[in-house]
Amino acid sequence: MPRFYAPYNFVPITGECNGVSTTSVNADAIAQGSSEHPARHDLWQAGRLSGRVLCAATTTSPLVIGAQQEPHEPHRGHDSATRVNPYRADDGRPAIPASSLRGLIGSIAETLSQSAVRVLQDRKFSVRKPADAKSALSAVGHLKIDTAGSIRIQPLSFPIFYSGSPVAREWLRVYGLENAQNPAQSIAMLLPAYLSAYEPAATGIQRVAGSFLAQPIESSKCSTRHWYAHRALPILNWNAATQSLRYRDHPAGVLVARINGNPTQTVDALLTQGMIKSLGIAGHEDELPRTKKHELFIFVPIALPRSLPLTRTAVSNFDEVFEEVRARCAYLPFTNQGSAQGLTAAAHEQQLVFFDVVAIQGVLRVSEISFSSIWRRRVPGSLYGALGRIGPDLVPLDNARNALTPAELLFGVVREEKRDTELAAAQHPAFQALASRLRFSDGQAAPGAVLQSPPVKLQILSSPKPPSPSMYFSQQSDGVQPTKSSLDLRLHNPNGRKFYLPFPANQRTTANARSNFGEANLDKQKLVVEPINSGQTFYFEIRYENLSPDELGLLLTSLRPSVDFEHRLGLGRPLGFGHVRIGVLALQDRERPKRYTAEDFLNGKNDGLAFADPSARPTSLPVALSDWQSLFTDISAATAWDSNAPRPSLGTQGLVDLPTLAILSTLGNVNKLEPGVPVQYPRCHQQLNGHGQPLGEDKLFAWFVANDRAAVQQGLPRVSADGSLATLNSNQSANDH
């Protein structure tokens, strides 16, 4: 069974630094100037550290830092791949923008100090429901808008259930049958009929050739022509004692009506009027379970029951699920064939939907609606709520927080929700934002050419989006991995901060990342890039002001957490791009308070190098950093340090959580990978050749579908205490079980 490493793993979020809650400072005290913390910009404090560091970022794989994007083949319109133009410095050569470097180092500093996650959307999630009768919706009605403008459901068919199953009283009430002594015949008149449509294919399903639905038929709306069919009613028996219904002639099976012949749109008094509920699955057949065989024919009741109001929860869940899935360009939710997608638009069209009901204080209301019987479930809770349960100061700064964590104090922060600034004149304004005490320059190469590869079309950059439990919530403290049906953000914590693993040397090539398969229909999901070659060096500096020794230690540790550590940066990281090794070449102290003295004013001489690595002395530097070159002429006065491990030479580690540093160092060290085991997207056996290499680039969801249906689900393993990384296994495609 082929093994592999997933392209990423996680560093746990604990809210603790070396066993103690992460330190924080009151934000308003910073704004009012009453705090002793050096996070201020109005003066340089004695005993604080100011200066700058010179760094070299050397690519150890192809690197793509994107700028403007445009269609690669404009004549193909939306079917074209997207061309990502490289970011360039003013001299026209490829460079690394300061914002990318700042974000890279800032995320490491957040992680090491167990600070707040400064950039995070308060997401609410949904997951696909399991494909079983218990989870499926089967009653069908059509949406409508009443005279007050509210959306309601007009019930049309009874839910489908198994022979012998009890019938919920709520459903009897929906159709006015709660007082009927024997509702069997009335229920039989309300049952839908199956229309054979699909059969298993090599993967997923396909339409049955020659069947009534061999060609897609638009799902019915009240505004479209009705269909007519010859209905064959089932003969049912009602058990009053158990409130259950069963077939008279055979005890098992699903309770449905039957149709003799094919439906027609020709009006015929001998036929029963009805509507067809048909999903639009074109292009997504591979994603459907091979057990799906039917669409539904809904017989219009002779007397329509009362329409039902929707609960606020039903509306909000539908809207949130629909927008959440559409925003991340997922293939779900499936919608009615040939129909509008949004709830309001669907209501205006009076589309058919599946629904469920609930009695609230005796009043029947619709509790859930969906376009397909197996749709999506809203995951209870939110991401902010889950992080807040770990520690109150871990979510981005908003009105519920007023404490600043170390990375926020160092890199700056903006309150996401502005406070009311209409305060009394005697009051100081509430804290709103804090500027960083670090300034990054662009990363630029020394004079000469920056080597790039010719344009290459990348494989589809795919990943299971949150909240995929097997990847994002698999590392629970109790060792029990939640499933899609049990995931609850009120109970389960996210795995942590996501970091990409380094790839083995043989996977750090454009050939490994190149799209080698000619499915033109997939081009719109692909990027065309011009990677910077491996072995290119970019120099940048970081100017820092008013840092404590612990803050400088945090900065230096973030630049090079360990000797073997490689940062991951830019596009294509899951395909082996974006490896960068940062060396800290030199540090120059600046005694800022001294500038106000006559000695400094009259001398006018810059401070020399405080620390430098003689073995890493650059032969040339970019023009923007050329003043460093003169400082290296007097390198003998500087204290020598190792550019691969600068932190032990200067700065203290009071803000670095050592267990986190150990995990991060493992995730950034290629030597921790087992030789011969690839780093790649999860795939099924059928998607790999005999050497464990991918056979294609699409259907990257297949492993996750199979995993969801497995008796024992795999989950992304936690980084072990001994610093080793566990692997995952390929699995059997769910459609081949």
Textual characterization of the structure:
The protein contains 15 helices and 39 strands. With 737 residues, the chain is α+β, with helices and mostly antiparallel strands. Strand 10 and strand 11 (151-155) form a beta hairpin. Strands 6, 30, 34, 35, 36, 37 and 38 form a 7-stranded mixed β-sheet that branches. It has a 5-stranded antiparallel β-sheet with strand order 22-11-10-24-25. Strands 12-21-19-15-18 form a 5-stranded antiparallel β-sheet, with no helix packed on it. The radius of gyration is 32 Å and the shape is elongated. Mean pLDDT is 87; it is low at 421-428 and 601-605. Helix 2 (98-113) crosses helix 11 (549-559).
Features:
737 residues, alpha+beta, 2 domains, five-stranded antiparallel β-sheet, 15 helices
Short description:
The chain is an alpha+beta fold and 737 residues long. Helix content is 16%, strand content 23%.
